[in-house]
Amino acid sequence: MQKTSVPNTTKTNFVEYLDNLKSSQMDYNKMADALYFSRISFMENMLFDPRFSGYTNPIPIIPITPQIGTGIPNKFELWKKEHEQVVLPKSDDTITIKNPLGEHEKKYMEIDFSLNDLGDVLRLIENNPIDNTITYNIDLNSLHNIKTELEQLNKMVGMKSLKSSILDQLVYFMQDLHLSDGSSDYKHTVLYGPPGTGKTDIAKIIGTMYSKLGILQKNIFKKVTRNDLVAGYLGQTAIKTKSVIQDCLGGVLFIDEAYALANSYEDDSFSKECIDTLCEALSDHKNDLMVIIAGYENELNNSFFRSNPGLESRFMWRFKTDCYNAKELKSIFKKKVDEAGWNVAESDITDAWFEKRKDHFPSFGRDMEMLFSYTKIAHSRRIYGKSKELKKCLNLKDLDRGYEMLLNNRKKENHISKAMLSMYI
């Protein structure tokens, strides 16, 4: 770890100095000191001179009414905008600004570490609190800003390879390596995987992280399906699709089951109109839009990507959610129980119980949510009229009965679906 110091004075444009001061995220006391030294610098450097202030006439005195949330921030933006456009100092008109830290020199620190997984990033954040007296070799502020999202992602059950892939994307974007000559690489992403593997949650986390980092300008997340993009008449689909895209500019458009937009067996003019419009937008808005599509890997590759040759190259990021094993299903179920404030004895939920029944949980996380719901219903009958101490304490009987209810209701759903289908045959 190496430490070097920087001088306590800098040569800068006063507008740039105020910009840096405004975005430095100082606490109250440090900001008060910084403003004091700014005032001293303003007087000592004669920044009221017209070449800096832009004023040639006396400035009228305007009474200030203290109001929360108004005043200085807005007036500064107006002042900055006016003087950047009207009067700019000549290249040799530099000024000396005193370091707001006073006698203390701002130091430089290199943090030497390796990133193998998300746990390493979280340990890095935990071990390095933000210190405004130090400049780091990494953007520590940004990492602290997305700590919540990193924790959410890291706590998701399983998906080791997917988490590693998202980490690759994150550190690439955080270092602005995706930017070149004012343009950006494609941010569009594919999430391969079956239902119930957390694809929507992952997409939301990605969108929130990148909006906090400034990679995306807005914290917009819009989830759509085919019905939200395809209209009932030719010509209307393009309008409908463009409208959805416009709503998402600056943020994330998430298309679930994107393979439904295309059909690999027959021509579909409505789907073609939608996909062609989408493909064009992927390029036109690559700087200010992130499109994330999700669905089964084979279906996406054999229908969606085959429908337009230009789609393949526009989705350069491919993440895959794996199917959960019995142990991971148990962990998901236990997590849902804990988050709901319920209890279940570890001895009553075993890997063997889930291993025996895992084939009946094709939707993984969704099925665990349904299993928990039915288990609670079974529990409510078992404890009725009994001690209050039993309330919200699940046991194996509740779990077995909840599983039976899940299967019975699934059979009823299948029976109704077949009956509805027979009406049209």
UniProtKB/TrEMBL annotation:
InterPro entries: AAA+_ATPase, ATPase_AAA_core, CbxX/CfxQ, CbxX/CfxQ_RuBisCO_ESX, P-loop_NTPase
UniProt keyword ATP-binding present: yes
Annotated ranges, domain AAA+ ATPase: 185-323
Keywords: ATP-binding, Nucleotide-binding
Pfam families documented for this protein: AAA
GO molecular function: ATP binding; ATP hydrolysis activity
SUPFAM superfamilies: P-loop containing nucleoside triphosphate hydrolases (SSF52540)
Similarity section: Belongs to the CbxX/CfxQ family.
This protein's name: AAA+ ATPase domain-containing protein
